[in-house]
Design goal:
Elements: H1 2-25, H2 34-39, H3 46-56, H4 62-74, H5 88-123, H6 128-142, H7 145-159, H8 172-202, H9 205-212, H10 217-246, H11 249-254, H12 260-269, H13 273-301
Length: about 300
């Protein structure tokens, strides 16, 4: 187990190193001269262009630039915005709690509804309920996120006036529609995964043996089948948590909600490359960390897995 953990941590470090290289390369992959791209059609003097180039550290060799960027990043310094002149780490720290709250709310919604729906569909396999549940799941996966958000605004904000269309503040009512928009498609995925996993486990020989011994069906499902069926779901939860954190960009934009997704969109629109680099790096680090924790949890839930 210790060897596996060390190997997994080493892999994560290598992945993060590769991510840092890619994030650093963002400012060098801009077509043409990056200073010209940042300034756009603004008429500035040669001295101002040179000042911006010096501010971005573009006069140094690329290895020196990368080492300086990596050293600062390891100390929590992600640079300074070239638009509003605030530290990138400060801006991300201020916006990250809003995105985390949205992602967790969407995940709770997806797990709560999707788990019950998938479990019931597996128990009622082959019935009208199973068909209806899976049809709803397919429908949920087929609706684009931006379109779902607009439909929810039209129904619950414009017509029923239950929730605000603009998600400002930290109130519960401001969080409902963004969480539904982000979580409902994931509900469909959870339902289908739980159903497939339960049906696979219910077909195992030890389940048949338990039933032959006269064990009550509820105990067969809850005690014998459910635990093994949850293992793939744990992996999914880990992956989707990271996805929801990074995939909230569209939802935050639709509902004008603060968060790192909207921060990234604004930074791209403003050609604020240090801010874009910072947001991408933070999201990538969170994604890698969550995946590492998920892998470790997976092996703890299922000790029979060979740790190679």
């Amino acid at each position: 187990m210790t060897t596996y953990l060390l190997r997994r941590l080493l892999t994560s470090i290598l992945v993060l190193f590769g991510v840092s290289v890619l994030v650093f390369s963002i400012i060098h992959l801009v077509p043409g001269d990056v200073v010209t791209a940042i300034l756009g059609r603004q008429k500035v003097s040669a001295q101002q262009e040179a000042q911006l180039r010096q501010q971005l550290g573009l006069n140094d060799p690329i290895p020196v630039q990368y080492w300086r960027y990596l050293s600062k990043a390891l100390h929590g310094d992600l640079g300074e915005s070239i638009r509003n002149y605030v530290p990138v780490s400060q801006a991300i720290t201020e916006q990250l709690p809003s995105t985390i709250a949205l992602a967790i709310s969407a995940l709770i919604l997806a797990l709560g509804i999707g788990f019950v729906l998938g479990l019931a569909a597996a128990i009622k396999h082959g019935t009208w309920f199973d068909t209806l549940a899976m049809s709803l799941s397919v429908s949920g996966l087929s609706i684009p996120t931006f379109w779902l958000g607009l439909l929810l605004i039209l129904l619950f904000s414009v017509n029923l006036k239950w929730f605000p269309s603009i998600s400002t503040g930290s109130s519960f009512s401001a969080l409902v529609l963004p969480a539904l928009t982000l979580g409902l498609p994931e509900t469909s995925v959870v339902a289908r995964m739980v159903r497939a996993s339960m049906l696979d486990v219910l077909g195992k020989e030890y389940i048949t043996a338990a039933r032959a011994k006269g064990v009550r069906e509820s105990m067969v499902i809850l005690k014998h089948a459910l635990r093994n069926a949850l293992i793939p779901v744990v992996t999914f939860v880990g992956l989707q948590t990271a996805y929801l954190l990074g995939g909230s960009t569209i939802v935050e934009t639709i509902f004008a909600r603060q968060g790192i997704g909207r921060l990234a969109v604004q930074a791209i629109s403003n050609r604020d490359y240090p801010m874009v680099q910072g947001v991408v790096l933070v999201v990538a680090v969170i994604y890698v960390l969550i995946n590492t924790i998920t892998d470790i949890t997976y092996t703890m839930l299922n000790p029979t897995i060979r740790l190679k």
